[in-house]
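Colleagues,

For the teaching module next term, I've prepared a clean inverse folding example: a structure given as tokens, and then the sequence designed for it. I'd like students to try predicting residues themselves before seeing the answer, so please don't circulate the second half yet.
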């Protein structure tokens, strides 16, 4: 039950285009996602399709993937790019602002899954989370979670149907299921939504609603690194 994801597959080899389409459908079904997939053998065939994720062949006769990537970057395009290639030596020229990985040909499902999992966590606000069986909420709407033994209180952003709710879930269960890209545990009883941090002052975190939380001494270094990585990732996509 996730938001619609727009995916463009661009490769001049029809067999590779077909195979990627099959693997993406497999991933879509396994993760209960909803994809709109456009497959082309020439990048110009995409028309005005606005993709969240682009699977882009590096070696193409008319215009290679690296040139396309450079053009998209110059236009400040927000699409995440996954390069598909037969030639690993080309990888060093293919790094870029929105390039999140490389798939060697022939593509296998395990490699595709790793990069799709990464992409879904990097697209702000796209991922939904099941806080209780049958109850889904956008991860960007979860501000923080406070624990009390086996129970936890989940606090949401303004405008959601509820301001907070009680859930029977431990810290370990939360940390095993929440995407690390967007959340971090700051002490033994609190998890913070990284996108809601307004200020990070020494061992104190101030959220966008004014709430203040203390970071435990044991988690100080790890939390600093997690927040730094989050800021870097988000700045790349702004």
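(Answer key — instructors only)
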């Amino acid at each position: 039950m996730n938001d619609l994801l727009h995916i463009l597959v661009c490769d001049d080899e029809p067999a590779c285009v077909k195979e990627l389409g099959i693997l993406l459908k497999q991933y879509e079904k396994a993760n209960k996602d909803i994809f709109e997939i456009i497959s082309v053998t020439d990048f110009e065939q995409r028309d005005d399709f606005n993709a969240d994720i682009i699977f882009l062949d590096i070696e193409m006769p008319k215009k290679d993937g690296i040139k396309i990537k450079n053009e998209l970057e110059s236009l400040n395009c927000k699409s995440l790019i996954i390069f598909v290639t037969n030639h690993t030596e080309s990888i060093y020229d293919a790094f870029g602002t929105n390039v999140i990985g490389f798939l060697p040909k022939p593509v296998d499902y395990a490699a595709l899954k790793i990069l799709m999992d990464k992409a879904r966590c990097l697209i702000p606000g796209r991922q939904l989370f099941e806080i209780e069986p049958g109850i889904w909420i956008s991860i960007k709407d979860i501000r923080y979670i406070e624990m009390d033994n086996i129970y936890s209180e989940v606090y949401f952003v303004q405008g959601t149907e509820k301001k907070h709710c009680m859930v029977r879930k431990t810290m370990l269960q939360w940390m095993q299921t929440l995407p690390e890209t967007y959340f971090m545990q700051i002490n033994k009883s609190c998890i913070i939504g990284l996108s809601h941090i307004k200020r990070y002052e020494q061992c104190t975190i101030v959220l966008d609603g004014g709430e203040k939380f203390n970071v435990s001494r044991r988690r100080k270094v790890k939390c600093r690194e997690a927040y730094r990585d989050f800021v870097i990732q988000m700045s790349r996509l702004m």
